[in-house]
Every structure is written in structure tokens, then in C-alpha cells.
Amino acid sequence: MKLTGAELRTIRMPLVTPFETSFGVEEDRVAVLVRVIGTVGGDRRPTEVQGWGECVAMELPLYSSEYAEAAAAMLRTFLLPRLLRASAAGTDITAETVDALLEPFVGHRMAKAALEMAVLDAQLRGTGQSMAGYLGATRPTVPAGVSVGIQPSIATLLDVVADYLADGYVRIKLKIKPGWDVAPVEAVRERFGELIPLQVDANAAYTLADARVLRRLDAFDLLLIEQPLPEDDLRQHAELATLVRTPICLDESIVSPRAAADAIALKSCSVINIKAGRVGGYLAAKQIHDICRANGIPVWCGGMLETGLGRAANAALAALPGFTLTGDISASDRFYEQDITDPFVMDDGQITVPTGPGLGVIPNQSVLERFTVTTEWIQA
Ligand SMILES: O=C(O)CCC(=O)N[C@@H](C(=O)O)c1ccccc1
Predict the structure, then answer these.
(1) Does the model's ipTM exceed the 0.95 cut?
(2) Which of 138, 135, 119 is nearest to 79 (CA)?
(3) Could you read off the pLDDT of 232-277 as tens digits, one per residue?
(4) Active-site residue flag, 275
(5) Is 42's pLDDT higher than 80?
(6) Taking 90 as the threshold, does the pLDDT of residue 380 lie above it?
(7) What structural domains and CATH numbers belong to the chain?
(8) Coil/strand/helix, residue 32
(9) Would you report the helix, strand and coil content of the chain in percent, each value rounded to 5?
(10) What are the Mandelate racemase/muconate lactonizing enzyme C-terminal domain coordinates in residue numbering (predicted)?
(11) Catalytic hit among 2, 112, 173, 175
């Protein structure tokens, strides 16, 4: 497509309840959104298209080195000007070429992913193909899993889990950290039985010296332990994998298809959480899916508290055949009283994959305005 301009918007959305992880407590979500405007169909029959991208970088650099303000600066100063200049010079801007065009800029995968997502959405709205169709989805719905934050007490945790199970969630993920691990998992197992699919997410809060504690989790038949050790420690994850029986799943460590291939080769994990924003976009996410499938590694789609825009794309991704484990694809009301798109709702534990062109959803302008902190127009 011929890129004519882009809107860069920062929104702030209140969370329905504080969300505590091993790296902090979030009361609201700050998100950077990109809307690209362009034309397709050449000079003969130019048709205007627009596409939306959502950056998953948090307000603070606690999950990864990226954060919202830095992502906005990257998009404003380097990434969008690069694409706009290339387009003005006659380059056809497609989702498949964004990564190569942005390659000179090192890192900033979440910022790049948001821009690639916007270009892909615009491109697909132009052709009429859905994101699910483009990625190769094979299912019309995906199972809904929920991520449960660290709670003030075990009693509160059990009430929260009971509510989510009553809502129909088919998989429970518990955030853990040193001092909040064996006891909450044991309590959930005792209260709700052995049958509910249960996993834990440490967000890199442990070290290999904690292997004894992590091995105690083997007693609870967990689906996996997610990212127990620091992001850059594939070797020690491989060591830990020989000490605990529960499958090790990596999240923060898997920053690219190459990292996925390395982690598999080094036996650092036996499950991978794929987050398009973390790995540089939905095309890289699909590559990781394909690498894992070729190596017999099950994958699932992680969440980053996305609005309905990212949620739509994640539902499409999670419908690919290698996504055999339930992901963090929850209903919009898990985090938001009001989503910026029509809300994603759960139906019998399932989330429906959008079938419209592109993402298949668009923001509700008045809700978007209500949550907007800043918006700016970027053009060549
Ligand atoms: O369901 C969701 O969207 C959230 C899933 C979740 O727990 N995400 C975690 C994570 O570490 O995977 C996270 C939360 C906040 C910020 C970054 C990551």
C-alpha cells in the first residue's frame, strides 16, 4: 500500500481490579495505538484503507526494557518516518516488508510489532481477508484462559478463582513469586480439585537456587511453570528443567524466532508462550508457531492486557493448529469495564475468532476519545 500518514495515540484505561504480578501492581493500562492511512489499488483505482496496531509495551519497563513512552518515541522519530519515506520513494508498503524496512533500528520489538500490525490490518481490510484467514487459523473459536494476579490472601485468591471458574474460564493461570507459590497453588488444588487445568507464571522471579521450592510444585499436576528464571538465562532454565518434573514454559526469553529455536535446541523449555508484541509482530509469531510445531513443542497465546484490537489479533493467532494449550485470551471484562472495541465475551468457555476483514474490529470513537491521553498525526 501507499502510506499517506499515521495517527499515534496514547490511551489510559482503568483496570476493573488491580493486577499484581511479581514485578509490580497495575491499576490501569497505558497503551500506544497506531492507525495507518494509505491507499491500495495503484493510481488507477486508489482505495483508501486504514489499519490499527496496538503496542503491548507497559507504562513502566518492568516486564521488558520497552515502555509506552519509548515506543511512542520510536514510532514518532524513527519507525513511522522510515516507512513514510520509503512509501514516498515508491516502495509498496506491505506487512511482509515492514520488518526488513525497520531492521536498521535495533530492538524495540513491541513498537515495531504495533506498526506491522497496523499495516497488516490495513492491507487485509483492502483485500477483504481476515487476520485468521491470513495467518492460517483452523478453528472458529478459541478456549478462554484467565490470568489471576497475586492476591492479598489465600481466602481472596480462592474467591477470585471461584468467580472465574463460574464465569466459564477453562484454564487458570496463577501469578507466583517467592513467598507466594506453594501455598496458593496447594489451596487452589484442595478447593477446586485435580481436574481444573492450572498453571503458574513467575515472571522471572526465581533463581536456580530456588529449584527445591519449584520442585515442590510438581505435587500439583500443573500444566507448566512459566518463566521461572531471568529472561536471558536459557542455560539455567535447561538445568532447572532437569530438576523439576513440571514442564518449563518460556515467555520473556522468547523474543524472536531465533530465540525460540535456541531455547528448543538447548532444552530450556518444553512449552512456549507466544506473544506477537514481544517477538516483533504477528508474522514472527507465526514463524515461532511453525518452528515449535516442527519440533513438537506445544504453544499458547500469552496476553498483555490488550484492548479489543490486540485481543482480536490474539484470538486469530491462537486459532492456529499448533496452539494446543489454552492461552490468556480472556473476555474484555476480565480487565476492562469498557473496551475500546465491542467487547469480547466468553460463550461456554470459548472466545469467537473475528471473521471480518483485517482485525475484524474497530474502536468505538467516543470510547477511544474518553481514554485518550494524547494523539498526534505523523506524515511524510
Ligand atoms: O490475560 C492477559 O492479557 C494478561 C496475561 C498476563 O498475565 N500477562 C502477564 C505476563 O507476564 O504474561 C503480564 C501482565 C502485565 C504486563 C506484562 C505481562
Answers:
(1) yes
(2) 119
(3) 999 999 999 999 999 999 999 999 999 999 999 999 999 999 999 9
(4) yes
(5) no
(6) no
(7) 2-128+364-378 (3.30.390.10), 133-352 (3.20.20.120)
(8) strand
(9) 40, 25, 35
(10) 154-247
(11) 175
Atom of ligand 1 nearest to the CA of 252: 11
Closest CA to 276 of 310, 247, 242: 310
User: What are the residue ranges of helices labelled H in the chain?
Assistant: 68-74, 80-88, 95-102, 109-127, 131-135, 154-167, 182-192, 211-216, 234-241, 257-265, 276-279, 282-294, 308-318, 365-371
**Cell numbers of 95, please?**
506487512
Which DSSP helix (H) or strand (E) runs through 64?
A: none
> Is 203's C-beta closer than 6 angstroms to any atom of ligand 1?
yes
Task: Please give the Cα distance from 320 to 327 (Å, whole number).
Answer: 12
CA–CA dist 378, 317 (Å, integer): 29
Q: Does ligand 1 have an atom closer than 6 angstroms to the CB of 251?
A: yes
Q: Do the Cβ atoms of 337 and 362 come closer than 8 Å? A: no
Q: Is 330 in the pocket of ligand 1 (CB under 6 A)?
A: yes
Which residue type is seen at 349?
Answer: G
The helix/strand/coil state of 126 is helix
- Other beta carbons less than 10 A from residue 21's beta carbon: 19
Query: Distance from CA of residue 269 to its chain's centroid?
Result: 19
Q: Report strand pairing: 248-250 vs 225-226.
A: parallel
Q: Return the DSSP state at 354.
A: P
Given ligand 1 and candidates 20, 21, 27, 160, which is best to mutate, with the most ligand atoms within 8 Å of its CB? 21
Determine which residue's CA is closest to atom 18 belonging to ligand 1.
Answer: 304
Q: How far is the C-alpha of 315 from the C-alpha of 194, rounded, in Å? A: 28
Q: 332 CB under 6 A from ligand 1?
A: no
